[in-house]
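Figure caption, in words: inputs first, then the predicted bound structure.
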Amino acid sequence: MNGLIRKSVQAMAGYVPGEQPRGEDVVKLNTNENPYLPSADVQDILSMVDIAALARYPDPVCTELRKAIAQLHGCEMENIFVGNGSDEVLALCIRAFVERDGSVGFFDPSYSLYPILADIEDVEKRPVALDADFGWQMPADYAASLFFLTNPNAPTSLQYSRANVESFVEGFGGVVLIDEAYADFAKENCMDLALASGNVLVARTLSKSYSLAGIRLGYCVGDAELVGAMYKIKDSYNVDYLTQEIARVAILDQDTMKANVQAIVETRKLVADKLRELGFEVVPSETNFLWVKPQGLSAEHLFGELRKKNIIVRYFGDDERTKDYLRVTIGTAPEMFQFLDAVEELVGGGK
Ligand SMILES: *Cc1c(COP(=O)(O)O)cnc(C)c1O
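Bound structure (pyridoxal-5'-phosphate present):
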């Protein structure tokens, strides 16, 4: 033990992001990025940037960007918090809404960052195990200060019905952060719950549907008092000038985002159909990835064999609940044909 470092920090494991190999010939299907280009308006705004503006601090409260987001969701700027990726939004929720002796809830499996954020703040974790079909049944008398409800869920790709989420929220005494990182790929979403309830925030990110994981921009929508509390405690300049500009034009260009989403949803269906033909279990996806259980060889073996072919998917091997599955991001159609060819060859060749 090092007496200089907080005990809780020494005890915790850090978050391990998916690997980011650089290289031309890698088919990268492991971190749910978008394979298509962001809005062309992003290129335009970057070429118009006046570097003199970079000498000044950015707008600390992202006024123009929040106006654009508020317009998109039909609410006021006061209902929008903007952060350095939705990861920052999640971290600030714990700091704003959970007392030292409070607790953070989430489903298991879901986004593996939640328990780590709770560990960082040294607050109690109250995970709720999903059942065998990755649905939920809340334990009697369950309570938590804050619940992270991922919908559609990752890594399972399933969407919980709006009706289920609504009744969860109504019966819950704390704050519910509905993490809708993948909602643009889904049939429905719960944005209206955020604007109708005092204890619900809905988080979105530009990392997936807007093809902008590189700029780090996430936001949440909800009750102005909750949003105001988050503004009190954030870093003074948590979103830089370039990110504010890029995000604003990307949000205003809904057509490009929707066209990219459409392409991914079509490819998703094609890949899911083909994998089912090969005997794989494919969970019905409402996201930009598939959660699949291979047939004929283990998930771990297939992961390793694909890797040898420079095709990188995600494997969560250290958990009983996830070790038989792979999470496969939907890339471009050519990338997915390469993936399917490799899978077919490996499955055909037996174990
Ligand atoms: C990708 C993802 C995020 C992170 O979004 P960023 O804006 O890139 O930080 C948050 N939640 C879930 C469930 C995700 O899959």
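Residues 289 and 329 are 4 Å apart (CA to CA).
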